[in-house]
Amino acid sequence: MFDHELANLVQFRSTGAPVLSVYFDVPADPGELKGVHARVHSLLKPIHDVVTSDALTHAARESLRADISRLEGLGERGSELLGRGVAAFACSSEGLYEEVVLAREFPERAVVDETPYLRPLLSTVAQARRYLVVVVERGRSWFFDLLGREVDEATHIIAPSTQRPGRPSQHDADPQHVENRAETLSRKHYHATGEAAATLLQKTGAERMIVGGHHETVSEFVAMAPKALRSRVVGTFVIDPNTMTPAKVRECAQPVIDDYERTERTQLVATAYERVNARGNAAIGIGWCLLATNESAVDTLLIHDDSEVPGRVCDNCGWLGLAGDECPVDGRPTRPTPDVIDETAEAVLVAGGRVEQVYDDSPLANDVVAALLRFPVVQPT
Ligand SMILES: [Zn+2]
Fewest Cβ atoms nearer than 10 Å: which of 7, 96, 120, 196? Predict the structure, then answer.
């Protein structure tokens, strides 16, 4: 589910100097590049105050100072990062430096903590979904495999009529016949496209499909698709196959995916509240969700926006809580964290669960976090 680099970041614990994590976006328009350097600079400005605070040892201060100047340098590299979201993690005294570049926006921020701040990454990279994009014409279809920022033209098929041009038939003079024949051929082609799509869905592990093309052909194809295939279609878009490129296909498909995933998250939130009302497998609020996380009961963690909640972590056993200098499980000293939700998200992913950031208005705005559970966990009093 999540790759090697990310797994390393999740496991990284600094024993000395803190880790500096920075998220920022580079505009797609080269004309706006000038502002990037200034934005990175102002993002890092509050970190200078951390450097000069008495809370850090001399060595930790030096490490953080080196991290700041390294990350400031990112602002200069705007031209190679056009239209990308950048996440970078540095802790020079421990030899940590990782950069993750994505084709999407991040909420911009800079965080200093003992561990890399991974929440925005975890809910995108770690869980990037695979989609199959099918672009259809009456005589030709293209298939694209979409995973995170990657798009590959998987294959394309051509209808038999265009593969064997010519061969005039004795009926070709009859306009009615020509029309019927064209219709039969496009039906056959749609059918073959549907079969190829079903095979590709199975082969790539994509669960969902998006259909693009001219408005008419898209509706014809979707209307004709077998029910099982149609239920996989999450949306459609209009594109001219004659001028499309994989990048253009991605650009057109992304808003469809965003819409679909937004609706899906809203439904997950509604399910959590319904289940809690029915005393089912769900938890609402940070206290309850922490308890469920400690019991490895969380299947899906839902987080409102970029809300942060300070808390405590036991690095020995992984216990997470809101307060307490001593771990209630093993009695070891706990460490404070500026955002215990970040640690919770990591714990849920490591335990094989899912994490969703919910940016839309929902009841979560009040409760901050909710979770769908694998088994019931009693609400703490
Ligand atoms: Zn513990």
Answer: 7
Phi, psi of 11 (to 5 degrees): -85, -10
Expressed in angstroms and rounded, the spacing between residue 103 Cα and the centre of ligand 1 is: 38
Report how far ligand 1's centroid is from the alpha carbon of 258 (Å): 39
Q: Is 286 helix (H, G, I), strand (E, B) or coil?
A: helix
Structure confidence by residue, pLDDT tens digits, 238-283 = 999 999 988 899 889 989 998 999 999 999 999 999 999 999 999 9
CA of 317 to the centre of ligand 1 (A): 4
Distance 210 CA to ligand 1 centre (A): 46
Rounded to the nearest angstrom, the distance between the alpha carbon of 131 and the centre of ligand 1 is 40
Mean of pLDDT values over 200-217 = 93
Length of the chain: 381
pLDDT at position 365 is 92
DSSP of 203-251: HH---EEEEEESHHHHHHHHHHS-HHHHTTEEEEEE--TTT--HHHHHH
CA 338/CA 342 separation, integer angstroms: 9
What distance in angstroms lies between residue 76's CA and the mean position of ligand 1's atoms? 43
Enumerate residues 6+ apart whose C-beta is below 8 A from 355.
119, 122, 123, 126, 127, 300, 301, 303, 345, 348, 349
- What is the distance in A from the centroid of ligand 1 to the CA of 315? 7
Domains of the chain: 1-118 (3.30.960.10), 130-244 (3.30.420.60), 265-381 (3.30.1330.30)
More confident residue, 24 or 372: 372
Distance CA 357, CA 262 (A): 10
Quickly tell me which residue has 């265009």 as its tokens: 162
Q: What is the pTM of this model?
A: 0.74
CB of 197 within 8 A of CB of 229? yes
355 alpha carbon – ligand 1 mean position (Å): 23
Find the mean pLDDT for residues 16-32.
88
Instruction: Give residue 326 CA to ligand 1 midpoint distance, Å.
Output: 8
Q: Is the pLDDT of residue 8 over 80?
A: yes
**Which backbone phi and psi does 98 adopt, to 5 degrees?**
-135, 140
CA of 339 to the centre of ligand 1 (A): 18
Ligand 1 centroid, distance to 352 Cα (angstroms)? 21
DSSP bridge pairs for 240: none
